[in-house]
């Protein structure tokens, strides 16, 4: 799946649950997921990998 296809799918999901696609996208949802995982695990390296960071 391409990045653009994924973005369109996220837009469709956001709209389907009644939210505004302009306010929620792949970046904001990724950051939300990362913050939830960090609060649960306090594992910064896991979050860096999740977000695709290769260097600290």
Give a written overview of the molecule.
- The protein has helices at residues 3-16, 26-41, 44-50.
- The protein is mainly α.
- The protein has one domain (3-50).
- It is globular and about 35 Å long.
Instruction: Give the structural class.
Output: mainly alpha
Shape annotation: globular
Could you name the ranges where pLDDT drops below 50 across 5 or more consecutive residues? none
| Total domain modules | 1
Helix percentage range: 55-70%
Sketch the topology as an H/E string, one letter per element: HHH
Query: Cα distance, first to last residue?
Result: 28 Å
Rg, please?
A: 13 Å
Beta-strand portion reads under 5%
Give the helix tally.
3
Write out key terms for the chains shown.
3 helices; 56 residues; mainly alpha; globular
Summarize it.
With 56 residues, the chain is mainly alpha-helical. Helices cover 66% and strands 0% of the residues.
Helix and strand topology:
Elements lengths: L2 H14 L9 H16 L2 H7 L6
Helix pairs in contact: 2-3
């Amino acid at each position: 799946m391409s990045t653009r296809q994924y973005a369109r799918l996220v837009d469709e999901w956001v709209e389907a649950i009644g939210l505004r696609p302009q306010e929620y996208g792949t970046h904001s949802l990724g950051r939300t997921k990362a913050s939830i995982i960090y609060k649960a695990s306090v594992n910064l390296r896991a979050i860096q990998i999740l977000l695709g960071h290769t260097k600290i």
